[in-house]
C-alpha cells in the first residue's frame, strides 16, 4: 500500500491526528494560549490607561474645593464614558458640614435624564434609607458616585474605567473629611478598599485612610436595586444602617 492509499485509509477511518512518541496535552496548549492572550490584553489596557490616570491625578490634585474638583472633571477627557453621557454628576448634598459621605457606583438612567443624582425609583429608595437614620443631603450628608458619568445600559464599570476616575473620588474624600463613609454596592468597596464583595465587607470593621493618616470608619451595604429584590437584603441593609447610626452617635 503506497502513502496516498494509507492517507486515504486514515481519512476514511476518521484518523485525523498523527501520534508521536511523546504525548501532547492539547487542552494545556489551548489554556496557555488563552492565558497569554489574557495577559496581553491586560497589558494593553494598562498601557492605554496610564497617561489618562496620570492626567486625572494631576487635575484632581490641584483642586482645593469641590467646585474646582468638578471643574477639573469637566476639563478631563480621559474616560470614554464622558462622550456618551449628557451630564457630569460628581456629587450632591451638603459640603461644609458633611457628617456622612455616601458613595454609589455611577449615575443611573433616571439620574442622566434629570441631571441629578438619586433620581427615579432607586434614588427615592436610597433617600428613604438615609432618612431612616436621620441623614439628609440638605443637612448632613453628601452623595457621590465612583464614576461621574452614566454607563451605557447601566452596566457595571470596567476596572480600567474605575482606575481612571479614582483620583477624583479620592480627592473628594480628602476635601470633605467626613465623619464616616457609607458605601452602597460592591463597586465603591472594591474601588477604595480592594474588597471584592459586599458580603465580605459586611463582616469586617472597615476604615478608609486619608493622606494625613486619619482613619475614617466605613460601613458597606447593599444598594437600593438589591434591597428591592428580597426581604433578606432589606434586613441586612437595615442592620448596616443601624451600625452607621451607632458610629455617628459614638464618634
Task: Give a structural overview.
The protein contains eleven helices and six strands. The chain has helices spanning 3-13, 26-62, 66-75, 81-84, 109-114, 120-131, 159-176, 186-193, 198-202, 224-227, 231-250; strands spanning 92-93, 100-104, 141-145, 180-184, 206-209, 215-221. A six-stranded mixed sheet has the order 1-3-2-4-6-5, sandwiched between helices. A hairpin with a 5-residue loop joins strand 5 (206-209) and strand 6.
Low-confidence runs: 26-45
Structural class: alpha/beta
Mean pLDDT: 86
User: What share of the residues lie within helices?
Assistant: 40-55%
The quaternary structure here is single chain
Strand content: 5-15%
Number of H/I helices = 11
Main sheet attributes: strand count, strand direction, barrel closure: 6 strands, mixed
Strand order of the largest sheet: 1-3-2-4-6-5
Helix-strand sequence: HHHHEEHHEHEHHEEHH
The CA-CA distance between the termini, in Å, is 91 Å
Overall form: globular
Q: Report the count of strand segments.
A: 6
Rg is 25 Å
Topology:
Blueprint lengths: L2 H11 L12 H37 L3 H10 L5 H4 L7 E2 L6 E5 L4 H6 L5 H12 L9 E5 L13 H18 L3 E5 L1 H8 L4 H5 L3 E4 L5 E7 L2 H4 L3 H20 L1
Parallel strand pairs: 2-3, 2-4, 4-6
Antiparallel strand pairs: 1-3, 5-6
Amino acid at each position: 500500500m503506497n502513502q496516498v492509499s494509507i492517507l486515504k485509509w486514515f481519512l476514511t477511518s476518521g484518523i485525523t491526528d498523527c501520534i508521536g512518541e511523546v504525548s501532547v496535552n492539547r487542552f494545556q496548549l489551548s489554556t496557555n494560549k488563552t492565558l497569554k492572550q489574557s495577559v496581553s490584553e491586560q497589558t494593553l489596557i494598562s498601557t492605554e490607561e496610564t497617561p489618562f490616570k496620570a492626567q486625572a491625578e494631576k487635575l484632581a490634585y490641584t483642586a482645593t474645593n469641590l467646585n474646582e474638583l468638578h471643574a477639573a472633571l469637566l476639563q478631563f477627557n480621559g474616560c470614554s464614558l464622558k462622550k456618551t453621557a449628557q451630564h457630569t454628576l460628581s456629587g450632591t448634598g451638603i459640603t461644609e458640614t458633611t457628617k456622612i459621605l455616601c458613595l454609589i457606583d455611577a449615575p443611573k438612567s433616571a439620574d442622566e435624564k434629570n441631571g441629578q443624582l438619586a433620581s427615579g425609583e432607586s434614588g427615592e429608595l436610597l433617600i428613604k434609607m438615609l432618612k431612616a437614620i436621620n441623614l439628609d443631603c440638605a443637612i448632613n450628608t453628601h452623595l457621590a458616585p465612583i464614576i461621574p458619568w452614566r454607563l451605557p445600559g447601566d452596566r457595571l464599570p470596567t476596572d480600567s474605567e474605575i482606575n481612571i476616575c479614582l483620583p477624583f473620588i479620592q480627592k473628594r474624600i480628602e476635601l470633605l473629611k467626613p465623619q464616616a463613609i457609607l458605601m452602597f454596592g460592591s463597586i465603591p468597596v472594591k474601588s477604595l478598599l480592594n474588597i471584592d464583595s459586599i458580603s465580605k465587607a459586611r463582616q469586617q470593621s472597615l476604615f478608609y485612610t486619608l493622606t494625613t493618616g486619619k482613619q475614617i470608619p466605613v460601613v458597606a451595604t447593599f444598594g437600593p436595586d438589591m434591597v428591592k429584590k428580597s426581604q433578606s437584603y432589606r434586613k441586612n441593609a437595615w442592620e448596616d444602617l443601624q451600625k452607621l447610626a451607632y458610629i455617628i452617635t459614638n464618634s
